[in-house]
Hints:
Blueprint: H1 2-40, H2 43-52, H3 54-62, H4 69-81, H5 85-105
Helix pairs in contact: 1-2, 1-3, 1-4, 2-3, 2-4
Amino acid sequence: MTDFVDGTAFNTEQGNRARKLFAAVVLAALDDAIADDKKYGNGPEQIARWARSRDGREVLSCAGIDPNERVVSGLMEFVSKGIRTSVALSREESERRNAAQQAEAA
């Protein structure tokens, strides 16, 4: 019985790793679209085309993201802002930490 529990925990961990890997692919696709937008001015269209493609939908699903039109619109909006994912994520994390510190101080 304990072997089953250990196997389930292992499978859950493997699933989480796979989701993170696919999430990294989504972030790379966003960065590529941002680069295209700066170079050619068509980044939002590129990310929408990718997200609506069979491969894009599969990658989004494997990353744990429902590949619906609301998500496509959000991806297009993100690309149109032109902020690379690493910068956006670090800024978001920084703001989250500051908010937590302020909440603790209050």
